[in-house]
Amino acid sequence: MAVSNTTVTEAIDTVQTYDLPALVDLALRTHPETAISWEEAKAAAARLERDRSTWYPTLTAMAFGQHFKTSIPIPGSALVSNGYGAFGSLNLAWTLFDFGRREALVDAGEKRLNAANFAFDRKHQEIAYRVASSFFSYQTTLAKVTAAEQTLEAAKANAASVKAKLAHGLATKPDLLLAIQEQAKASYDLQDTRGSVTQTRADLTANLGISPAYSLHLIDLSKLPLPAGLEQSVETIADQALEQRPDLMARLAELRAREAEVKKARAEFWPKVSLRGMIGNQYWGGVHTNPPGNEHYSASNLVDTAMLNVEWTLFDGFERNNAVREAEAKKASSEAQLEALRLEIIRDIWKAYADTKTALEKRSFALALLQAAEESYAATQESYSHGFSTVIELLSAQKDLARARFTEIESRAALLQSATTLVYVAGGQNQTDSNTDNQTYGSGPAH
Predict the structure, then answer these.
(1) Residue 221 DSSP one-character state
(2) Which terminal Cβ of the chain has fewer Cβ within 10 Å, N or C?
(3) Between β-strands 77-97 and 17-18, what pairing exists: parallel, antiparallel or unpaired?
């Protein structure tokens, strides 16, 4: 499942307008980390099959040839034999009973395969979360650019209005300088905000697993639906997380694998019973002796053996004792890691729940603030045009409106981000998009 440049290019549609689910789908197909976790799961499956192979017999073929010359002392001389020989055989070895060694080995392999599969699932969730977070950051920056452009246009209009009044003697030079100062500040803020677009876009493409050179059409932040409220209690969400978080399930599977390793280490104290057999042919050719008689001969013999072996290590310098202690220590470590992860999950859920609840409340205040600032600015602008308000009041209303726009944008992004974080730490799978969860949140309009 390696991701090549050709695959990435084929996966990207430069015409499509990507919403968040489409971006997540793109990342899962192109991000190298997806391929890494997939290959690790495949390796775990291969290791399991390798462990299962210990149940089967092994059959090996062996053959060799030689030339020999031997000398045996005899009275007055030596008996010399020389010639060549060949031997070929099939050897069978089969462990019949090992007091649970193989069962424990296969059990540990199965648990680690489960852990790898759970890790693969969690990696998908992690990539989806990172894509959503960077998407919200990028779209928030674009929205702030739009708000900064609106503020600059308002500053230009106010400066033009003050200049027109100055021409008719209804304003002073300091009034005009203040208006020009606010216009310059608005221009600076716009350029500063535009400078953040490149960085947030690079973060988004990095989390998508593609080059920043690719140009994607993205849905506008204002079109994303917002959660209307938290439908479930924090206790319910925490209970569900402890049942469905893939990384917690992976940690539990690793604990079960460590338990199997303890059983295997203890089984090493017992004997192994195995069957061994061999059948082959031994050939001697061109053999002659000297003395006597310079006789030549050849021979071919069928050779076979069958053995039932009992192998029992009685003392090994306490290696097996220490192996059991090591396995038990690793098991205890896995238990502690599992408990630590449970506590971390509960803590993260409580924090994300509180952040989301706060973001929901701040969102309503941000909308009210924006509406009040728009009405105040419109009223102050009209009042100034009739000579009832000062330029300082006009510029103050303009700055308040600019801050209210940024606050509204940030409140939307904060709500989307906190909602996504709550779904991620709960280990839930999003039903319709990657920023809301139907079971956790009530549906709400995109406002």
Answers:
(1) G
(2) C
(3) unpaired
Burial class of 294 by CB neighbour count within 10 A (0 to 12, 13 to 18, 19+): exposed
Task: Encode 56-82 in three state secondary structure.
Answer: CCEEEEEEEEEEEEEEEEECCEEEEEE
Place of tokens 């062996």: 62
C-alpha distances (whole Å) from 193 to each of 139, 178, 286 are 12, 23, 95
Indicate the DSSP class of residue 2. P
Q: Which helix (H) or strand (E) holds 169?
A: none
* DSSP assignment letter at 315: -
Segment holding 48, helix H or strand E: helix 32-52
pLDDT per residue as tens digits for the range 145-183: 999 999 999 999 999 999 998 888 888 899 899 999 999
Give the Cα separation of 99 and 262 in Å (integer): 13
What tokens does 327 get? 């396995």
Tokens for 232, please give them.
């479930």
Alpha carbon distance 7, 9 (integer Å) = 5
The answer to whether 30 and 11 have CB atoms below 8 angstroms apart is yes
299 alpha-carbon distance from chain centroid? 67
DSSP state letter for 386 = T
What is the residue-wise DSSP string for 322-335?
HHHHHHHHHHHHHH
Joined tokens for residue 123: 């990696």
| 427 half-sphere exposure, CB direction, 13 A CA radius | 24
Q: How many residues does the chain have?
A: 447
> Token pair of 61, please?
């073929």
Report how far residue 249's alpha carbon sits from residue 338's, in angstroms, rounded to the nearest whole number: 9
User: What type of residue is 429?
Assistant: Q
Residue 149 CA to residue 35 CA, distance in Å, equals: 42
CB atoms within 10 A of CB 397: 24
Give pLDDT tens digits for 81-100: 788 889 999 999 999 999 99
| 58 in Cβ contact with 257 (< 8 Å) | no
Mean pLDDT over 43-68 rounds to: 93
Are 401 and 374 in contact, with CB atoms under 8 Å apart?
yes
β pairing state of 217-218 and 17-18: parallel
Domains, in order of start, for the chain: 5-30+100-271+332-442 (1.20.1600.10)
H-state helical runs in 233-318:
234-244, 246-267
